[in-house]
Amino acid sequence: xxxxxxxxxxxxxxxxxxxxxxxxxxxxxxxxxxxxxxxxxxxxxxxxxxxxxxxxxxxxxxxxxxxxxxxxxxxxxxxxxxxxxxxxxxxxxxxxxxxxxxxxxxxxxxxxxxxxxxxxxxxxxxxxxxxxxxxxxxxxxxxxxxxxxxxxxxxxxxxxxxxxxxxxxxxxxxxxxxxxxxxxxxxxxxxxxxxxxxxxxxxxxxxxxxxxxxxxxxxxxxxxxxxxxxxxxxxxxxxxxxxxxxxxxxxxxxxxxxxxxxxxx
Length: 265
Ligand SMILES: Cc1cc2nc3c(=O)[nH]c(=O)nc-3n(C[C@H](O)[C@H](O)[C@H](O)COP(=O)(O)OP(=O)(O)OC[C@H]3O[C@@H](n4cnc5c(N)ncnc54)[C@H](O)[C@@H]3O)c2cc1C
What we know:
Elements: H1 3-10, E1 16-17, H2 20-25, E2 40-42, H3 47-59, E3 64-67, E4 84-87, E5 94-98, E6 103-106, H4 112-120, E7 124-125, H5 136-141, H6 149-152, H7 155-158, E8 159-165, E9 171-173, H8 187-191, E10 200-207, E11 209-210, H9 225-237, H10 250-260
Parallel strand pairs: 2-4, 3-4
Antiparallel strand pairs: 1-2, 5-6, 6-10, 7-11, 8-9, 8-10
The chain binds flavin-adenine dinucleotide.
């Protein structure tokens, strides 16, 4: 029996795909890297499913790459040695919202916009915004940041706890719900940014924030990059609460003007 047939028995046939379009979608990212197809795409529906597949892959020495939405840019979801692409999109539930603790527990395949839709009902939002609508598992695995990081911090600052399936199939938790803890090693910090190499994230407990009552936006043009940087430093030194700041250089503004028919300096 082929290893793909064994996987179909381990989970269910509909969770295991060798459809050509599906393989193609999991053989690329949003960057410029050449495409390379996995042998198979597997869709776990639970932590137990992930554990089964990871243990199986380890026993049979089959390469395995976790896959969120494939929006990353550095080629790390591309299976250059074939094997299993483990697509976590079926694990996309909000498991628990704790508004009074400013915490939320989610599955890794949930995207940040899906999460923010749910949080809005509670007057809350999740702060990390890398531009792409990525999964929270993928964002943790890449330690994503974005324009809001100047105020709220990067992905590593938001993660309170992760459930992780290690390559040998063992399930661990890397933190807890306490606002501060000094006990044990800082395993959150180790797994966040590990790009799927240390384990598969199957659950995340994340810090969330109240939606500000008012937000103002401003745009300014500077004669040099140094002048722009000096302005940023001055604004931050003055203690004004800044949610986002983004530097757009001359060539980028030129493209913005071209595409939108604008005339920014
Ligand atoms: C237009 C654009 C703008 C961007 N701007 C920024 C930016 O400003 N700042 C920034 O930091 N990033 C930026 N990014 C990158 C962005 O952070 C990543 O694309 C995103 O975090 C990846 O999420 P994903 O769900 O698509 O993960 P994928 O691309 O599917 O996977 C990314 C990595 O995470 C691993 N992985 C995925 N899920 C899991 C899991 N559950 N457990 C373990 N490992 C997992 C994968 O194996 C892979 O190594 C940008 C991307 C785009 C396309």
